[in-house]
Amino acid sequence: MDLPIAWNLDDKSTYLSVDSSRLRVNYEGNQEETGVIRANHPIPPQCKLFYFEVDIIDEGKNKVIGIGFCEKKVDLNRMPGWDDGSWGYHGDDGYCYAGFSGQGNLYGPLFSTGDTIGCCLNFTNNTVFYTKNGISLGSIAFRNLEGTLYPCVGLRSQGGYIEVNFGSRKFKFTGNAEKL
């Protein structure tokens, strides 16, 4: 069972660059284009819980950063949650987007430079919740998950720069993910 441990250099938008660690992603578009990157492996549902965190090193000019997960078929030039088979929490408006509806739901606070956003997929009850700076946002963002899901991040903010933690270092969130 292979777990996601880095970004997939061959599964990203051309508007993104990735450093040699395969954990840091920089947006290189002009804010008109969206860049999305997927992890190197899907999340195995048999692990029951999967959690990862994204450090916002630089929010960029307009803070358009989306953190979530998607299926392999999803367009890498559309923000997480804007297409069927894609879900994401966005830092510029605090909304969660799920699939092709085009409409988000207010979920949590905005996030920006210096924040760490965590995403927890619970395959026992097929739900997702997010954390900010190690604290659970307290409610379910998505329900009824299905499909083969990859962690993903989308950026559309000039100067935007993030780093992912798939568990190679200590997480900021230390709470009980199974209680939600």
UniProtKB/TrEMBL annotation:
KW ATP-binding (keyword) present: no
Organism superkingdom: Eukaryota
Database matches in SUPFAM superfamilies: Concanavalin A-like lectins/glucanases (SSF49899)
Protein name: Concanavalin A-like lectin/glucanase domain-containing protein
Biological classification of the source: Eukaryota, Fungi, Fungi incertae sedis, Mucoromycota, Glomeromycotina
Family annotation (PROSITE patterns): B302_SPRY
Gene Ontology molecular functions: carbohydrate binding
Species of the source: Gigaspora rosea
Keyword presence, Glycoprotein: no
Domain B30.2/SPRY: 1-171
Keywords (A to Z) from UniProt: Lectin
